[in-house]
Design brief:
Blueprint (H helix, E strand, L loop, with lengths): L33 E17 L4 E22 L2 E17 L12 E6 L3 E11 L2 E10 L5 E2 L4 E2 L6 E11 L3 E12 L6 E12 L5 E12 L6 H4 L13 E14 L2 E16 L3 E10 L1
Antiparallel strand pairs: 1-2, 1-14, 1-15, 2-3, 3-4, 3-5, 5-6, 6-9, 7-8, 9-10, 10-11, 11-12, 12-13, 13-14, 14-15
């Protein structure tokens, strides 16, 4: 039986479908061990999903990239600390020729930290490849915004989240799922989320990992969004009423017994989210 850790099922940032909190997994790091990952994600778009097959045309091309540091560390028996520090690079670019009317925002860039994330995971069960854990997290109000360009690097709110995750892994495959909720301040809509994934190990020495995932987020309620969204309604960045159903594919390679390379692509159907495919690249290492 392969020894299981959350590193095998870590989720790269799929910024096409942004969440306040980073995804958790069922496997908890043992005391004194950990996992550290540096990642880059990128998405370009000029229209938004509007909840059906139509598109909301934006006045300018939007580019959104994230540099992130994600980590996990076992601080006690059954208890793990996790953190995520995202730095966003956003750009409102050239005018969109499909947009009708006067362009309401100016061209420009905004680079700043997004919503930082800090959390704890507690293992309820870890036996014979089966794991169940509870997760709590906080995301302070650390993002920035520019009303002139409509650019944002996160939600203008703080958030707390809680979830339960379960998974099973063998020598050749694994699967996991997570169900949780996020409560946001500043009159933002609260959210429910569900995540599931299945993966398999490939190659003579099982150095390759392929993971297929499904992420669902549902905003609870409706809002006019005018006061909270401001000019970001013209860029689609971190709007209040966002919901989605997204599929993602991750491919990992293990050059050594303690290092990892991850590639990821994500896309799907949504409401008030940029239309496009988000790509991610990350390198990671175990902490021992």
């Amino acid at each position: 039986m392969r020894k299981w850790h959350s590193k095998w099922s870590v989720i790269l940032l799929a910024l096409a479908f942004p969440l306040v909190a980073v995804s958790q997994q069922a496997w908890v790091q043992e005391k004194g061990t950990g996992y550290l990952q540096a990642g880059y994600s990128s998405l370009s778009y000029n229209s938004l999903h509007n909840g059906n097959n139509d598109a909301i045309i934006l006045p300018r091309d939007v580019q959104h990239s994230i540099l992130s540091i994600y980590g996990e560390y076992g601080i006690a028996h059954r208890l793990m600390l996790r953190w995520n520090v995202p730095f966003h690079i956003t750009k409102a670019g050239a005018s969109n020729t499909e947009f009708i009317g006067t362009t309401p925002i100016e061209e420009g860039t905004l680079s700043a930290f997004g919503n930082l994330d800090l959390g704890l995971a507690y293992s309820l069960l870890s036996k014979d490849g089966t794991a169940v854990s509870l997760h709590v997290g906080i995301a302070p109000k650390t993002a920035s915004a520019d009303e002139v360009t409509g650019l944002r690097t996160g939600y203008d709110a703080a958030a707390v989240s809680s979830s339960i995750a379960a998974g099973y892994g063998s020598n050749t495959y694994f699967l996991s799922a997570e169900l949780g909720a996020q409560l946001l301040t500043s009159d933002y809509l609260n959210r429910l989320f569900f995540k599931a994934q299945v993966g398999t190990f490939l190659g003579a020495h099982q150095r390759w990992t392929t993971i297929f995932g499904l992420d669902i987020q549902q905003a609870l309620g409706t809002s006019d969004g005018v006061g909270l969204n401001g000019s970001s309604i013209h860029t689609g960045l971190y709007l209040n009423e966002q919901s989605f159903l997204a599929a993602n594919l991750k491919i990992g390679y293990q050059p050594t017994t303690s290092s990892y390379i991850w590639l990821s692509a994500a896309g799907g159907i949504a409401k008030n989210v940029g239309r496009g495919i988000a790509f991610s690249l990350a390198i990671a290492t175990d902490i021992k």
